[in-house]
Amino acid sequence: MAALVSSPREVFSEAVRAVLETWPVLQIAVDNGFGGVYSQQKADWMVDAVQQYFHDNSDLEQDEVEDFLSELMNNEFDTMVDDGSLPQVAQKVCVMFQQCKQGKLSEVKQQISHLAQKKASGRAKVTPVKSPTEDAGGSDEDDGEESMECDEAGVGAAVKQQQVSSSAPKEEEEDDDDDGWTVVRKKK
């Protein structure tokens, strides 16, 4: 199957895929169809787009990569990332690119393996959570409140799609603005 000796470009492409596949914001966007019926194909395309961006531009800075990833999420998934994960993802990709460029392919492969284990241990899952009124035996009326929890490898996160009372636990939130954008924010 795979050749014994991989080129730095192939290893970098695998690294980008590993990083993006373990990015909770992207996985939530894909799982919930924020990119439409072709959300998974868009996520796969993002791997190629990011990899090509690095090869087309020399000496990229982390903030340039952050801007590029943010633009891709905005354009392809109508999602504005505001949870603090963008700098971490951009940094991982930048570091791996530099390591590939320096020929440190075994180090990058080790990081890819670690990310693959992280992915296998748990992908972000969206599960409904009872609102505080339901827990207290409240009425069965639908008052427009909905909360969802995301479980991922020991990291709990809540995804907010409609206005939720402030007593609900929240780490990451999504707001659907009137203009159609989805904003992901870190817990305040």
Give the count of structural domains: 2
Work out the strand percent: 15-25%
Radius of gyration: 19 Å
List the helices and strands in order.
HHHHEHHEHEEEE
Distance N terminus to C terminus? 47 Å
Q: How many β-strand stretches?
A: 6
Q: Uncertain regions: pLDDT < 50 for 5+ in a row?
A: 124-131, 134-172
Structural class: alpha+beta
Helix content: 40-55%
What is the mean predicted local confidence, pLDDT? 76
Tally of helical segments? 7
Please tell me what the overall shape is: globular
Q: Can you lay out the helices and strands and say which pair or pack?
A:
Layout: H1 8-21, H2 24-31, H3 39-56, H4 62-77, E1 79-82, H5 85-101, H6 105-121, E2 125-129, H7 132-135, E3 147-152, E4 155-159, E5 172-176, E6 182-186
Parallel strand pairs: 1-6
Antiparallel strand pairs: 2-3, 3-4, 5-6
Helix pairs in contact: 1-3, 1-5, 1-6, 2-3, 3-4, 4-5
Summarize the structure.
The protein is built from 7 helices and 6 strands, in the order H-H-H-H-E-H-H-E-H-E-E-E-E. The protein has helices at residues 8-21, 24-31, 39-56, 62-77, 85-101, 105-121, 132-135; strands at residues 79-82, 125-129, 147-152, 155-159, 172-176, 182-186. It has a 3-stranded mixed β-sheet with strand order 1-6-5.
